[in-house]
Amino acid sequence: MSDYDRLFEPISLNGKLELKNRLVMSPMNMIMSDPEGFGDEQTQAWYISRARGGVSAVITEATVPINDDWHGTSHTVNARMSDLRYGRIFNELVRAVHDYDCKVICQLMTGFGYQGKHHVASGVPSAAPSAVAHKVDMRYSVRAFHKGLKSRFPEEMKLIDLDIVEGLSDEEYYPFENMVYDLIGERSPKIRSLIDGEIPRPLEHHEIVYLEDRFAEAALLVKEMEGDGVELHASHGYLGANFLSPRTNRRTDEYGGSLENRARHIVNMLSKARAACGEDFCIGIRISGDEELPDGMHHQEVLDVLGMCEPYIDYINTSSGCYDACNTMFPYEDNMMNRHAHSFRERFKLPVLVPGIHDPANAIKAIEEGVTDVVSLARAVVADPDWPNKVKAGRVEDIVRCTRCCNCLLSIFEATKVSCTVNPLVGYEKYLPENWPVNSPRHRRKIDRFLERRAGLYDSEGGS
Ligand SMILES: Cc1cc2nc3c(=O)[nH]c(=O)nc-3n(C[C@H](O)[C@H](O)[C@H](O)COP(=O)(O)O)c2cc1C
After folding, report:
1. Mean pLDDT of 437-453
2. Of 174, 195, 216, the domain-final residue
3. How far is the C-alpha of 324 from the C-alpha of 137, rounded, in Å?
4. Is residue 205 one of the residues assigned to a domain?
5. Of residues 70, 54, 175, 185, the one with CA closest to residue 121
6. Which residues does ligand 1 sit against, CB inside 6 Å?
7. How many other C-beta atoms are found inside a 10 Å radius of the C-beta of residue 5?
8. 441 pLDDT above the threshold of 70
């Protein structure tokens, strides 16, 4: 028995999906798709390398089920699942990952909502429930990115004493924010545009229904393309979350106002996906336990929303905060999402996933203390894809630790090419032969058999 054996016990996601262990890869958009949302051999190699590293499932990056320019994602580029062309590529990915006894859950997200930008080619603005623009609030966000920002903006960051900034009142804070954002904008217009948003176009009622139907179709496409499940992204200030939050949903029709109305879009997407995919297919939801903003969505409301979703879902993937308040979304220390995961687990009879744990000792503790059923690894497997296998082999000291500098995110925000300060191979996985689908264990067996038989041809008497 090793100290970590319980991490490697199998678990069933509500009887719909069997996982070989309690470690999955958390969804991460590494901006590897092309501008039309097509993945390629690099995307495949990225997922294969993490499957080889020992997780029981990869949850894909946020994947968009529509081609309409108002999805608002063209500035960062997201994968798509909007028609069979994408389904075919997804199927190749699924088969490659399955070769490592690893499942594939596709995270689906209908759009960037109020965090979106106008489409780079057509100029069409992003669409959201209401015409509210997003703006990152440093008081709730800057600690998460502090290390990475200090290396990029050394002079500007000298102005920011974390404790003082976090204690500022609105009257004190906003003039300070304007000054800092202007300085950042001079140095990096790209980062400025991401922290200080555009005003989105409010969605028409028929477009909301259209999104629900496209979501259900995409879920069915994932199922038919041999994916193991789908996850609705209702978190992080994207379109789904915009409907839920009173900050961003000012609608007066049946999709706005009361909590039931604000949850209607999410519940409809889930119920339509369930009807399309049947009872046996695994469907999960990603949701923040709290938006962590004074005027945002709070935990009790999140529990009530999950109560409405419960008939249609098989697991809850915990997150926290949103891009306007990302200290807990990209936690600067372990266990920051545990209290919400634990609360979900106490309230619902559904398996719970939680990220934000990088140290194996905290991972096993969270499982043993009943905080969560599954630990989902994000930046920890960016830094070291072999985190699970090393823990299983008792080689914890060999893990390359994530420093939480958030360079992975900042590099995407800046240049749309991901990189990691402790793992130089990030973004270059396709160059490693061990990540080529042709070198998977299944193909390896075929190749070995061929080589054996070919050798046999020459060994036999009279062979040519
Ligand atoms: C580069 C990057 C991209 C991410 N993209 C997504 C995404 O597409 N969907 C999602 O739900 N979360 C996304 N996340 C959030 C992670 O899934 C995870 O919740 C977060 O990083 C905190 O966990 P960690 O401390 O283990 O990294 C992303 C995180 C990173 C670092």
Report:
1. 89
2. 195
3. 5
4. yes
5. 70
6. 26-30, 61-62, 107, 233, 235, 286, 319, 330-331, 355-356, 377-380, 408-409, 412
7. 10
8. yes
- Confidence (pLDDT) at 59: 98
For a mutational test of ligand 1's pocket, the pick from 316, 330, 403, i.e. the residue with the most ligand atoms closer than 8 A to its C-beta, is: 330
DSSP string, 363-412: HHHHHHTTS-SEEEESHHHHH-TTHHHHHHTT-GGG--------HHHHHH
* Whether the predicted pLDDT of 1 surpasses 70: no
Name the domain count of the chain. 3
88 and 147 assigned to the same domain? no
226 and 293 part of one domain: yes
Domain assignment of residue 137, yes or no: no
Q: Residue 103 is part of which domain span?
A: 5-120+123-130+200-431
Which atom of ligand 1 approaches the CA of 330 most closely? 22
pLDDT at position 459 is 74
pLDDT by residue (tens digit) across 165-223?
999 999 999 999 999 899 888 888 888 888 888 999 999 999 999 999 999 999 999 99
Task: Look at residue 138 and tell me if it is in a domain.
Answer: no
Residues 156 and 233 in one domain: no
Higher per-residue pLDDT: 157 or 354: 354
**pLDDT(457) > 80:** yes
Helix (H, G, I), strand (E, B) or coil at 226: coil
CB 396 within 8 A of CB 358: no
d(CA 30, CA 217): 25
The answer as to whether 304 is a domain residue is yes
Tell me phi and psi for residue 444, to 5 degrees: -55, -45
Q: Beta-strand (E) ranges in 133-249?
A: 201-202, 229-233
- The encoded tokens of residue 288 equal 């923040």
Ligand 1 centroid to Cα of residue 452, in Å, is 45
Contact 316, 348 (CB under 8 A): yes
